[in-house]
């Protein structure tokens, strides 16, 4: 077996690719921050769903790459016995909950899972880049993190970095503002594996795209793995230069589809198991049969039923689920729930204005209203965490993540929070039906 140590970044030979000729003015790139403009037309997520591990089937070398036994000695796989790369554990930014062991496999995502597994086992040799696309909430982000975790498990010296497009944009802008362009390049071009989420949000961001273009070239030229997720396949992405889209097609393109009934039931079972919830099979089948596309709403319905039962000291059964979810489960064909609708309904409910929700005020009432609005936007729409933050006054996606987790944790414990979320959800769903 060929082995080698993960190599530090080495500048490409002259003629390898054209570097940016000059640093763009700060005022031009500042406009590319998420929250300053809204150039992307599609919403995606930074969350996903989970399930039992499964050994992937053999995947053909559709990406045109070469496998380890075909590599010259100086380009073979990292040495699994090598020590971890110093300082890269924290900078990897990997979510510990998103691994292959917690990913639910079904017909809707089997090939994407197999391709992701192959990339983990053979970075930069199986498919490079690997491009995964699909609607929000279907597991793309989960696969990105799982790739990073398993690759680092197999090759401890591997330098891995996960980043969403918002973070990449802000890191780039901050490097220009702080006159640390060389530091930015050192971070992003000195990795062995770059995992970039929601690439579609770079649409129209000319300077950030230019930097990513050269980062991609540097990594690809040095046999480093790149994995990208998007809500659309490369050919359908708008606001990107053709040379950028063409590079997305160099390796393997695969998609994830909405899960079929059996997979939805498996998702609910895994969620119940991970949360130590006692839920009868007929309740999970009822939820899975009526909520079919949005995985967050699928899991949210389960939490809503179990939270209601916990607060009211009742057993979870089918009749209770039907009562609790009667306003959540609507007829097909309802109008899409929008951010404007959620914010307007939430503001009216708490007797505040939408401007108040977007303000910097941290009064108890406004903080509570703002966090519940974030939770509802996450549960009832396809908006990503960065996009929700943008809607709420340009807040960071980590603030949104904290709010969603806080409200979720309070639902089974506080009657007030449960009632507020339930009443607002019912009102929003009622308006949705009326707007069909």
Automatic annotation (TrEMBL):
A GO molecular function annotation here is:
ATP binding
According to the UniProt record, where is the region Disordered?
1-21, 62-88
Q: Which PROSITE patterns match?
A: DNAA
Segments forming domain AAA+ ATPase: 126-254
The residues the record assigns to binding ATP are 137, 139-141
Q: From the UniProt entry, list the residue stretches annotated as the region Domain I, interacts with DnaA modulators.
A: 1-81
Composition-biased stretches, type Basic and acidic residues, lie in: 1-10
Q: Where is the signal peptide?
A: none
Every Chromosomal replication initiator DnaA C-terminal domain range = 338-407
Q: What is known of its domains?
A: Domain I is involved in oligomerization and binding regulators, domain II is flexibile and of varying length in different bacteria, domain III forms the AAA+ region, while domain IV binds dsDNA.
Assembly and interactions? Oligomerizes as a right-handed, spiral filament on DNA at oriC.
Quote the protein name from its UniProt record: Chromosomal replication initiator protein DnaA
């Amino acid at each position: 077996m060929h082995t080698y140590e993960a190599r530090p970044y080495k500048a490409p030979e002259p003629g390898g690719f054209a570097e940016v000729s000059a640093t763009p003015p700060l005022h031009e790139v500042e406009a590319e921050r998420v929250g300053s403009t809204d150039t992307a037309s599609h919403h995606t997520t930074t969350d996903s769903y989970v399930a039992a591990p499964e050994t992937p089937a053999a995947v053909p070398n559709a990406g045109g790459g070469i496998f380890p036994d075909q590599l010259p000695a100086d380009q073979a796989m990292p040495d699994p016995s090598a020590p971890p790369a110093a300082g890269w554990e924290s900078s990897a930014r990997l979510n510990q909950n998103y691994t292959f062991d917690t990913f639910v496999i079904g017909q809707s995502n089997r090939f994407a899972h197999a391709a992701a597994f192959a990339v983990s086992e053979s970075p930069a040799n199986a498919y490079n880049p690997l491009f995964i696309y699909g609607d929000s909430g279907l597991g793309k982000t989960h696969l990105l993190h799982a790739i990073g975790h398993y690759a680092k498990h197999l090759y401890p010296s591997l330098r891995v970095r996960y980043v969403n497009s918002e973070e990449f944009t802000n890191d780039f802008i901050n490097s220009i503002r702080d006159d640390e362009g060389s530091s930015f390049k050192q971070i992003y071009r000195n990795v062995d594996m770059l995992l970039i989420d929601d690439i579609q949000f770079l649409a129209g961001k000319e300077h950030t795209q230019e930097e990513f273009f050269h980062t991609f070239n540097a990594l690809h030229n040095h046999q480093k793995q790149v994995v990208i997720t998007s809500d659309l396949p490369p050919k359908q992405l708008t606001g990107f230069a053709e040379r950028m889209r063409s590079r997305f097609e160099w390796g393997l393109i695969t998609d994830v589809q909405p899960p079929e009934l059996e997979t939805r039931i498996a998702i609910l079972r895994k969620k119940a198991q991970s949360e130590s919830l006692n839920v009868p099979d007929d309740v999970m089948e009822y939820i899975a049969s009526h909520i079919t596309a949005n995985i967050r709403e699928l899991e949210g319905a389960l939490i809503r039923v179990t939270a209601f039962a916990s607060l009211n000291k009742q057993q979870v059964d089918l009749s209770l689920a039907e009562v609790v979810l009667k306003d959540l489960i609507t007829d097909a064909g309802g109008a899409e729930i929008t951010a404007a609708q959620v914010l307007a309904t939430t503001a009216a409910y708490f007797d505040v204005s939408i401007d108040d929700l977007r303000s910097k005020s941290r009064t108890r009432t406004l903080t509570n209203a703002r966090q519940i609005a974030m939770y509802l936007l996450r549960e009832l729409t396809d908006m990503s965490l960065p996009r929700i933050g943008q809607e709420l006054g340009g807040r960071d996606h980590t603030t949104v993540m904290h709010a969603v987790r806080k409200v979720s944790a309070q639902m089974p414990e506080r009657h007030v929070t449960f009632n507020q979320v339930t009443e607002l959800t019912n009102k929003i769903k009622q308006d949705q039906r009326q707007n069909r």
